[in-house]
What does this fold into?
Amino acid sequence: MVAAIRNAEWCAWFPEDYRWAYNVMLVLAVVPTGGAEVGEIDRVCRRLAGHVGDDERWFREWGAMGDHVRGLAEKAEARGDRRAALAHYRRATSYYFAAERFRFPKDAEALASYRAMTDCFRRAAELDDRYRIEHVEIPYEDTALPAIFISAASSPDDRRPAVLFMSGFDGNKEHNWFLGAEDLIARGVSVLSLDSPGVGEAVRFRGVPLRHDYEAAGSAAIDWLEGRSDVDADRIGVMALSLGGYYASRCASMEPRFKACVAWGAIWDYHRIWRERIEAAYAKQLPVPGEHLVWSTGTSSNTEALRLLEGFRLADVVPRMDCPFLLVHGEDDQQVPVSDAHLLYEACGSADKTLRIFTNEEGAAQHCHMDNLSIAVPEINAWLADRLGASAG
It folds into this structure.
């Protein structure tokens, strides 16, 4: 029997609808890192009040806020205020990201909104003189995967540890910026934020679908990092969130060059997760509309997508892992049960492994800790910097 959906009582906006509530939380979560403004979020949510479930209206209202804030950025640029323009472009990035997530099909209008998001992030990066932010291409089979590299090095020959940072089922390389990238740089760890197969620009503009053997992307990323003079090839880790808990665990188990692994949210049997969702006619807690599955896998039906997901199981994979492993999960994660975290932890073959469950009492108990990143991110990043032997320069 499928468990009844619980109201999202942890979210003041749209508590009656998990998907809408959780996605508002995604935007709220990046306020401390400059990715959004509470007043702007509130304005959008007030316009959406009484329209829960109307994804077209969601697309229009968040997109309109993106347009508004991008306009502020352009005006600030015109008057020579780089700092204000940078801040506005960063927030516009998040609002376009929120808008496009629910839009199906991924038609020309949806893709234009997504392109506005990537353009705003790129312009913000160009205005940010605090960091060396590079938009790069990672050679991958017969194409390339788009990525963002932020160096912690003080010079081109200052070899620093690095982490491959991937999102999950429905994130992207731009959103990763707001999830602790600056903190990692401050700790002396360079960041390669990747749009991996089935994710971000890779699937939208290059037709690269989701796949189970994610080490193909992980190995491509390490090959690229090893070619940089400012990266210590012996100190490269991998971290990913949500479905990325599968990506990172798979990569670290199959690619021995990774020296540390963070699964930011457990995935044990993704086929089971989606089988249950489909059997419940998508009545279970979902982060995005159910159509995302068929689209991101490049399949033509749920049946075909489920066949592809049969490979997304870790029981026969993670016993091979031998690098340090950190698994973090929320006690009240309503997308993936905490029991899956215990299964993954027990099966992992690493001698140095840590399971951290954030509780309801302390906060950060929801999926990937989006209800309180401020306590989760420092723990994750401190562990990663320690295992990679990083020291801030």
